[in-house]
Structure formats: structure tokens, C-alpha cells
Sequence to fold (294 residues):
Amino acid sequence: MAAPSSLGLLQVQSFTAAKCRPVSASQRAVFAVRASAASAATKDAVLRPFRENRALKIISGLQNFDRSNVASVVTAADKGGATHVDIACDQDLVKLALKLTNLPICVSSVDPSAFQSAVEAGAQMIEIGNYDSFYEEGIEFSSEQILNLTRETRKMFPDITLSVTVPHTLSLPDQTRLAELLEEEGADIIQTEGGKCSSPTKPGVLGLIEKATPTLAAAYSISRAVSIPVMCASGLSSVTAPMAITAGAAGVGVGSAINKLNDVVAMIAEVRSIAEALGTASRTVSEDLRTVHH
Fold:
């Protein structure tokens, strides 16, 4: 399959420094310390649900620029008990989301330069991933491409929380190795995927478990190879979200189970169902860990 032709053309925009009155070295140092402290506090708040094994990120879609649908997804995440919301990398969508929720807003893209305006608009987390729409176009991403995107993004944004998705198109050993390299490059979170490659043969609960198997397997393997949090995403539901936590994930990402619904009330109900299932699972894991330690 073809590699993304646009990746080689990505150019980081240059920004002209705004004219201002000269400041002393001591003033610049104070500003830097304050900015660093603010960034650290924001990052800690974004990562806290992962440390508590209860992160729930609701995903509207990397190429979903439908303001009405994005607004419904953000509202559902906010009212349903999610901890994060993930939207397309667009400053206007970020501004829209900020009016609807206080949850940390993540923006997804495969173009590092696109993150700048979204971060300036208020996004607190960035994600290299949500590749599903590219797979539909016959485009896949190699380990080398993902690593290069991560290096470029981390260089541009050294302090912001960075999540990187490991493509399910790689073999499981290659996914695990890529995750290890991404941790070395400064990724804060590894996200798994796999729902698109799964074709359930059974209806009901059995089908839901079948659909989640690839991403659950990736979460299990990767969580044992890295020290940073793993977010299990793609093909999950209220049935399989608890399985992700048990497998070793620190949180789950849910997209189509929410954003494909046509009614915001139904979206809220589904988010709440997953949040409740996830809460039960995270408490069980915490209790198990306490038992092991004692």
C-alpha cells in the first residue's frame, strides 16, 4: 500500500516574533519558570486519570470536521463521565469544544505543523494517530514514518502531553518494538488500535469480544514492554473496556461506538455505560495491586 504522499511535503511554518518592549534577563527567567510550572501542572492534570487506570477518551475522528457532530461528541464525553475528548486538529473545533467542556482536549493529526494553531487555541494534548480514515484510502504508516513524525512533533512541542498510536498493520512484535522506541523519543502515552482489522463472526457479546481482540492483544503486549501509560482504543465497548484495563491498559479510547450514533442522548448513555464499566474495572485492578503489595 502507498505511503502518505503528503508526509514528505510537510513544512513547519515559521512564525514571526511579535514586537514588544525589551525585557531583562531576570524577567525572562521568571517568565520561563512560570511557563514551565504551568505546563507541568497542565500535563499532570492530563495524565492523572492514566495513573489511576481510569482514563476514558472519547474520539470524534481525525477527519471529522462536522461541527454539529463534534459538538454532540464533546457534550456526550462531558456529560457521560469521560476524562478526555479527542477531536480533529482544527483551532475552530478546539474553541468550540472549550465552550462545551472543561475536559482536557486532545487533537489528532499526522501533520506536526498542524498542531500549532490547535495548541494555541487551547488543546492540552496532541495525538499522532487515529489512522482509520487513511486505511480506507489504502494508506498505511511504517514504523520509520511514525518515529519521524514523533521526533518532529516532540521537537516542536517539548512540554505538551504527546500520545502516539501504534498501527495495527504491523505485526504484534513490531508494534511492541515501535512502542519501546516511541517511549525513548519522548511519547507520554502509547495508543493501540485494531478494530478495523477485526471481522466478528458472532453476534452479541461474543462479537464484541471478537472485535476487540486485536487491540486488547496489543495493549497486553505493549503495556509489559514500556513504562509509560497505554491507551487501548478501536473496537471497544462497555463489554470490552474493562478487559482492556485487566490486560494492562491505563485507559481506553472509544470512537465509532459513540460518534456514529445520531442522538446526543444516546451518545451520553453509551459514554456513561463505558465509564461505569471502566470505573469498576479500575477499582478491581487497584484492589488487586494492593493485595499483591501486602
